[in-house]
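TICKET: design request
STATUS: open
ATTACHED STRUCTURE:
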């Protein structure tokens, strides 16, 4: 059983920045970030391959968010800049233990973190 520990959420004004972190309990996987706003379905935000060589973004965050791996390749970060009120949501990290490339699709991820709240005020 893989556990994912997220941190870094909080309250920020529009235009500000936050960095989310996700640490798996062991090994290195393709990882993704998803978010869910109240009354909406969970949506893809970003993903990174197991090697860290490939990254993918939703159109809504492209150019503002950056997904990356730490030096040890296990921790995954989501740097969020130029935040907007519509970015307000619970953010979840997820691990794909089957595929090395990362995926846009939530059903291809095997383990999920507990979620961290991001609130952007206008």
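STATUS: resolved
RESOLUTION: sequence designed for all positions
ATTACHED SEQUENCE:
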């Amino acid at each position: 059983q893989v556990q994912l520990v997220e941190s870094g959420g909080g309250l920020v004004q529009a235009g500000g920045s936050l960095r989310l972190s996700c640490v798996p309990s062991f090994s290195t996987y393709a990882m993704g970030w998803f978010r869910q706003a109240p009354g909406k379905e969970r949506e893809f935000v970003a993903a990174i391959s197991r090697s860290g060589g490939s990254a993918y973004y939703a159109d809504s965050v492209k150019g503002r968010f950056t997904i990356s791996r730490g030096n040890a390749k296990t921790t995954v970060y989501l740097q969020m800049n130029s935040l907007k009120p519509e970015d307000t949501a619970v953010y979840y990290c997820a691990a794909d233990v089957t595929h090395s490339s990362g995926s846009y699709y939530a059903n291809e991820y095997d383990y999920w973190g507990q979620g961290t709240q991001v609130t952007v005020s206008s």
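CLOSING REMARK: The two ends are 40 Å apart (CA to CA). The longest strand covers residues 89-96.
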